[in-house]
Design goal:
Protein name: PhoD-like phosphatase metallophosphatase domain-containing protein
InterPro entries: PhoD-like_sf
Shape: globular
Oligomer: single chain
Organism: Bacillus suaedaesalsae
Length: 703
């Protein structure tokens, strides 16, 4: 069962006029280089290809026994590559005796199922945008067994329509978090991932060296069984995810999940080797964990548990099949679109750094902190490195490489590796797009507010904790430095990619704020069942975001976000106490594949959405922030106080279906001109791409 040579990729990553970065994962070390062409379309609809550069360098990191991560950078021969023209690339490989390219892997054959090219082009293509007229794709939350179709496919179909039309073709793809769900792994995937982990990495990384209890039963067995990790994750790691039955733990497991998420290669390998086990086969091979023993007096409970697990397994497998059917489309989209990625919680674990207590408890758990570090290491290898390669110096690469060589936990190289990733403070970055895009790290640069918040539940009065400040003062300082270093200056347009929206849908947040959040005072851990991490839930953190927008002074500020499992668009004009003004546009797209709003909470949220649509549609909302950071809606009974931090006028935009919100799977499509912004949502159903447009926003002073 030999692994395919190309495990995942090529994925187009950071692109600008000084360098083209292409990411690729392979099962063994290859010598490789890149070539860049300018593509010219002739009058007879054929193409010519002008070689611009074959000057390239490759950084290869040996991640495990059969896993190599490669980042190819193609540099210009002269000063820079041309902008706003169609470019194509190829990768050349050598195993010492033979030179071959992407065509030898069947990836460049036009119109073939495995092709990563559009139409009759010879190579995957893209362009470097320098125009104020630009188009980009963005979204978040893509879960293997999430409900509904994978809307990344609709992005691929859009490129199929527009690949020659650079005025309509997206120049970038922003993935804004939850590219994988490390904490919520489908049952049929679990044994596949654990087998692939050993194949890719080898039988290293002994977790029992971090927690001796894993040597004892039932844990020594359950940790390797479907449905067997919930107790371990809760009690040994101090994690709070309620869906941690199959939580990823080892680096190889994270790596396998990423490879399966980005490419069809390993899925084809699994199918060819008949590695899709049924539930009955998993039970027969003792690969399923049961809480109840199969003996009296538990026989009836065991039977019910068995039936429940079997139904869940089959449901997960059905949802997975709807995802893997379209992986060739996903691979083609990623190969042809400069892609920038930032993490959110599920890339590591649900509730990641939710509170100071969560952070403390996990950091004090050797096993829990190890899992978080593995998640960060995998994020770097499969997502972060390609965003801004220059942020990871030779010392960083040496530390990572030394640990990956042996995976010996509790060694000196292990502690250096863990300290490096735990304390790393440059996960944020500026993407070289037009306008420039500042990607925020809202997970590792947090601060926590211990000033008590008074709450009232019936006749009971309590003091409660406030939500986290998603970026600390030091974090904002580093963001400002990165903006200046990127060449961005005030009075220019600025896009900000925030995994969590700055603005939510008010009534939904009010339901959480008024009814869900106060339950914590009663000891009900609802903050672990529902995401309670919007910027709004800490007025000080929200106001700091606005203060930095006032300080930076962008001509127009565009916030792109995901996370919340719905899509929306709004425009707000904010004024500070001192009279500074800022116009902010926020466009939110979520989920790519993970429709939610099921059960009782889904019913409550859908009801809130319905009432919110009636209340907010076509209306302007007035809001202000008091001196104690309490945010208030202004109406006939409330007036702006003399002392306030800011006040604003919010306008929610409606879709062509006369709604201000979309809860079905979607991916955002933002089109900018000098004087307008048009946000649309792409969906994929009945084997076709569908588009729903929001109201056009007129930009008086230009973008």
């Amino acid at each position: 069962m030999k692994l395919p040579t190309i495990l995942s990729g090529p994925i187009l990553r950071k692109v600008d006029s000084t360098g083209i970065h292409i990411w690729l994962a392979t099962s063994f070390r290859l010598q490789m280089k890149g070539e860049l062409y300018q593509i010219h379309q002739k009058e007879d609809s054929t193409y010519s290809y002008q070689l611009l550069s074959n000057h390239s360098e490759v950084k290869t990191i040996h991640l495990g026994k059969n896993l190599y991560m490669n980042l190819v950078k193609i540099s210009p021969v002269t000063k820079s590559f041309p902008s706003d023209v169609l470019l194509g690339y190829n990768l050349l490989f050598s195993n010492g005796t033979k030179v071959f390219d992407l065509s030898d892997y069947g990836l460049l054959t036009p119109n073939s199922p495995d092709s990563i090219v559009y139409g009759e082009l010879l190579y995957p293509s893209f362009f470097i945008n320098s125009s104020e007229n630009s188009t980009l794709l963005y979204g978040s939350c893509r879960k293997f067994h999430g409900k509904g179709n994978d809307t990344l496919v609709s992005g691929d179909l859009l490129l199929l329509e527009t690949y020659l039309d650079l005025e309509k073709r997206p120049h970038s793809l922003f993935l804004l978090g939850d590219q994988i769900y490390a904490d919520d792994v489908a049952d049929p995937l679990f044994s596949i991932i654990t087998k692939l982990s050993k194949k890719l990495i080898g039988k290293r990384e002994v977790l029992s060296n971090l927690d001796q209890r894993l040597k004892d039963e039932p844990f020594s067995t359950s940790i390797n069984q479907i449905n067997g990790r919930q107790f371990i994750m809760k009690n040994f790691c101090s994690f709070t995810s309620s869906s941690a039955q199959n939580h990823l733990m080892k680096f190889g497991e994270f790596a396998a999940m990423y490879l399966l998420s980005f490419s069809p290669a390993l899925w084809e390998y699994l199918q060819a080797n008949n590695m899709y086990p049924t539930f009955e086969e998993e039970v027969a091979n003792n690969n399923v964990y049961y809480m109840f023993p199969n003996t009296e007096p538990y026989a009836s409970e065991r039977l019910k548990e068995h039936q429940k697990l079997e139904a869940r397994y089959n449901e997960h497998w059905e949802d997975i099949q709807s995802t893997i059917t379209n992986f060739t489309n996903v691979r083609r989209l990623l190969a042809n679109t400069p892609t920038y990625m930032i993490f959110d919680d599920h890339d590591i674990t649900d509730d990641w750094n939710l509170s100071a207590d969560w952070e403390t408890h996990v950091s004090e758990s050797p096993l829990g902190s190890h899992v978080v570090t593995n998640g960060l290491a995998a994020y770097w290898a499969f997502q972060g490195f390609g965003n801004s390669p220059e942020d990871f110096d030779a010392s960083f690469l040496r530390t990572m490489t030394r640990y990956f060589k042996k995976f010996t936990v509790n060694s000196s190289t292990y502690h250096q590796w863990k300290e490096l990733l735990t304390n790393f403070q440059s996960w944020h970055f500026v993407a070289p797009t037009v306008p420039k895009t500042l990607f925020l790290d809202t997970r590792t640069r947090r601060d926590f507010d211990f000033i008590p918040k008074p709450i009232k539940i019936g006749n009971m009065m309590e003091e409660n904790l406030r939500g986290p400040i998603l970026i600390s003062d030091h974090g904002w300082h580093d963001l400002t430095k990165s903006l200046v270093k990127s060449g961005w200056r005030g009075n220019q347009p600025l896009a900000i990619a925030s995994p969590t929206p700055l603005y939510g849908i008010g009534l939904i947040e009010s339901v959480l704020n008024s009814y869900v959040y106060p339950m914590r005072a009663l000891g009900i851990p609802v903050d672990h069942a529902l995401d309670y991490e919007a910027w709004k839930y800490n007025g000080k953190g929200f106001s700091e975001f606005l203060r930095h927008i006032f300080t930076w002074k962008p001509s127009t500020c565009i916030i792109l976000s995901g996370d919340v499992h719905y899509a929306s668009s709004l425009r707000t004009t904010v004024q500070s106490q001192s009279g500074e003004e800022a116009t902010i546009l926020q466009f939110t797209s979520s989920p790519i594949k993970n429709m939610s709003f099921a059960g009782i909470w889904g019913f409550l949220m859908k009801s809130a959405i319905w009432f919110n649509t009636l209340k907010r549609k076509k209306k302007n909302l007035q809001r202000f922030c008091m001196n104690d950071y309490q945010m208030m809606l202004q109406n006939k009974n409330t007036k702006t106080p003399l002392l306030f931090h800011w006040k604003e006028t919010i306008k929610y935009l409606s879709t062509s279906t006369d709604s201000i919100i979309e809860t079905n799977n979607n991916i955002g499509l933002l089109s900018l001109t000098e004087h307008s912004a048009q946000n649309s949502l792409l969906s994929y159903r009945d084997f076709e791409k569908h588009e729903t447009a929001f109201d056009v926003v007129t930009l008086k002073d230009g973008v």
